[in-house]
Fold these 2 entries.
Entry 1:
Amino acid sequence: MAEPDQASIPVQQESSSRRTIALACRECGGAIQLAEGARIANCPSCATSFLVTTPVGIQRYYVPPTLTVKQAALMTAGAALVGQRIGHRLLDAQLVFAPLWDLRGEVEGWISWKRPRRQVVIDEVRESWDGPKVVQKKILEEGGERFKRMVSWEGRQVFPGIKVGEYGLYEVKDERFPLLKPYDEGEMHQYGTIFTPQDPSTQDALEHAQQYYQELVLSPYSQAEEVHHRLKVTRQGPPMLLFYPIWIVRYLSGRKLYRMTLDAATGNVIYLDQPPRRRRLSLVLSLLGLMLLTFVLSTPLKAYTALRSPGEISEVLALFIMPLFGAGVVLMLWLEHVLWERFADRFTERILGDLLGRFF
Amino acid sequence: MAPLKTESGEIVLVPLRCVACHAPLAAKEFQVFFLCDHCGVGQVLEGERLVPQEVVFAEGEGDVFLPFWGLSARVKLTTQVLDREVRPVQFSEALAEILAQEPGLVKRVIQTYSTRMADLKIGETQNLSLYVPAFEATNFANYTANLGVVFTSAQPEIKAGKPGRLVPVVYEQTDAEKLSEIILVAVEAGRHDEVVDLGFEIKILEAKLLGIPFARDGDLLRDGLVGAKILAVGVVGLEEELSLK
C-alpha cells in the first residue's frame, strides 16, 4: 500500500476532554463522578457498579451558574465604560438555562486520495557554452500521487437546541469543562428560567452531529483530488442535552439600548447586541422626509404661482420652498427623536439597523 | 428490577448485577461486555439493559486476552474503483541488485502475515469471518484497525480454550458491523495498489465475541494465532488486567 504523505495532508485526530457529572451513590450516599457519555458509574466508596439510565432516553444535565446578578450588572457597567459611555442604566437581567446538544462520537474510516497536481517554477543553474553560469526558469509538475490510509477522529459537537440566534448561543464555548449536575427542574428554577428544547429533534440532532463529524474528518482533504472514502460513526453514546446558564441583560447607555448575553458559568461576554449608528439613521430619515415634503408641497405651490404671476415662477419658488426645506428638516429630526425614544427598546432599531447595515 | 430514583435528579442508577445469578458485576465506565466473576456468564449492554452474550476464549498461549468481534458474514463485492495511473513499485538499480542476491530479503524486511482470504471479484459472494477489535486502543488507525485487517486477511481457525483475563470490551456489535466494511476495504485496497474504492453488501450471519490470547514480548503483545503484534502501551486497560492476573 502506498505510504501516506503526512506533510501534505494531515489526518485530523481530535480528542477532547470529557466533562464530569456529580452524582450520589444510591447504596452508600458517596460522591460519584461520572465521565460524560459513560453508561457505567462506579462508586469509589462502596465499589458498586451502576448502570446509568435516564427515563427520557436522553442524558440531561445542567451547569450550575456562578455569576450572580450583581456581577452581571457590573459586567454591563464595564462594557459601557469600554464603549466610552457614562451613565449606563440596567433595565433588567434574567438568568435562563439554554439547551445545548452536546454530542460526542468517533469516526473511523478509510480514505484514498491523490495529492493535488500543480505546476512549480524552479530556478535551474546551468553553465553556458562560453563559461558563465546562467539561471533558467523550469516548470515542473508535482502532485498526483495516490495515498490510502485509515482515519480516526474523536470529538464532540455542541449546538443550540432552540432557534434563538439573537442570544448568541452559537458562541457558547464551554472551555472549562465544569462539573455538571443532573437535570433537576426544582433546583434549576431557583436560579432562573429553563428554555425548553424544540428544534432540532433528537434524531435530527444526532444526524446533524454525524454529518459534522464526517465533514471535519474530510476537511483536510478538501484540496485533494479523486477522494474516495468510507467513514462510519461509532460509539456515539447516549444523546446529551446540556442546559447552560446565561444572563440576558438589557441596559441603556448614552440613550441607546444594549442587550448583552453573559456566560453565567464563566462570566464571559457571549454576545453584545449593539444599536445601529444613530447619526446615519437620522441622516437617512431626514433626507427621506425632505424628499417627501418637497414633492408634496412643490406641486400645488407651482400651480398656484403659475396662475398668479406666470413670469416670476422661479423667484416665488425660491422664496417659499427654501424655508419649507428648513422646516422639513427640523420636523423630521424632531419626529425621529420622538419615535426613537418611544420605540428604541423594541424592534425598530434592530430591523432598520440590519437593513442599513447591508447598504452602508 | 425496578429502578429507584436517587438524589441525582433524573439520572437513575441501577446496580449492575449478573443476569443469571444476580451477583454484583464490576465494570469500567465505557465497558459494554461483562463477565460474571461468580458464575462466568457473559452479558452485553444493549441500550439500557443486559443480555446474555457468549464469549469464546481462543486456544493458545498468552498472558491476556484481547477481545474481538468475530462476524460470520456473506460478503458480496458490488463496486470497485481502480486507478489506472498507478504503476507497480520500481526498485532502484542498487536495491534491485541486492534483492537479486538475496531473494528472501523482502519477506524478512517487510513482515507479511498469512493470507487465506481469497481475492474478491465483482458480483461474487464469499462467506468470510470478519474480525473487528472490540477493545480500546490509543490509536485506532495504527493499532485497532491494523489488527482487524491482519486477522480478517488471515482467516484463522479459532478453537475454544480456557478462559482468562479479558481486556475491557468497548465496541458494541453494531459498531463492529459498521467497522467490518472499513476493514474489508482496507484488506482489499492494501493488496492491490490500483484499487481506490470498494463497495460491499455484507450480511451478518452470526456474531461472536472472541478472546484472542496475546503474550507479552518486550514492549509488544504478540498473538499466538497469526503472529500479529501490537504495542502494549496502545491497549487501554491492559496494565490493569495484567496486574490482576
Note: Confidence is low (pLDDT under 50) at residues 1-15 of chain A.
Entry 2:
Amino acid sequence: MRYLTARKRAEGKGASHTGTEHHWKMQVSAAGLAVLVPTFVFLFGSTIGGTYEEVTADLTSPFLVILTALVLVVGMQHFAQGCKMAIEDYTQGSLRKGLIMLVFGLSYAITATGLFALAKLAL
Amino acid sequence: MAETKRVVERPLSPHLQIYRPQLTSITSILTRITGNALIVAAFLIVWWLLAASSGPEYFATANAVVTGWFGDLVLSLSVWALWYHYFAGLRHLYFDAGKGLEVQTAETLGWVIIIGSVCMTLFTLIVI
C-alpha cells in the first residue's frame, strides 16, 4: 500500500508542474509595481538629462534612491519571472533550461550592478 | 461484430497564421512584447547609473549615448512600452479577479489600454 493521498498524487501533474505559485508571484509583483512605477517614471525621468553635478546631487535623495532600488529589485524579478513564462511557452528541453538560466543570471546581474551604483551615489 | 467507425470532432488549436487578428489577441501579445522589450531600457539606465557612480569622465560617455538620438529613441519607445504594459497589467489583474471577461467589455478595455498608453506617453514626454 502506498501512503499517498489523492492530492499528493495529483500535485505537479498539471501543465506548469508547479501549481499556481508562479501566477501568484506575478500578481504580487505586479501590484507592487503598479504603485511604484508612476512615481518612479516622473521622478527618475526628470533626473535623466541633467549635468553630472545635477544627477549626482539628485541621487543622494533617500526617497529617489530607495524608490529606484525598489523598482529595480521588484521590476527585475517581475521581468525574470515573466520572461521565464514566455521561454516555457516557446522552447523545450535543454534550450529552455539554458535560456531560463541566462535570463535569471542577467536579471540578477542588472539588479546587483544597479544597487551598487545607487549605494555609491547615495552614500 | 458491428464495427462503427467513430469520427471524433476534436477542436483544433488556433493556427496563428490564419487566425483573424482581434483586438483582444493583439493587445495580449503586445503585453508580452512590451514587457520583454523593457529589458533594453533597464540595461541602458543601469549602465548610466553605473557611469554616474564612477565619475565625470565615464558619465560623459554614457550620458552622451543615453541623451543622444539613440537613447532618446529607445527611452521614448520604452516610456510607451512601460505605460502599455502598465495598463495591460492592470487589465490582467482585473481579468484574474474574474471581471470584465465579456467580449464587449474586453474589447473596450483593449481600446482603453491603447489610448491610455499613448496619452500617458505624450504626457510623460512633455512633463519630463
Note: Chain A touches chain B through 36 residues (CB under 8 Å).
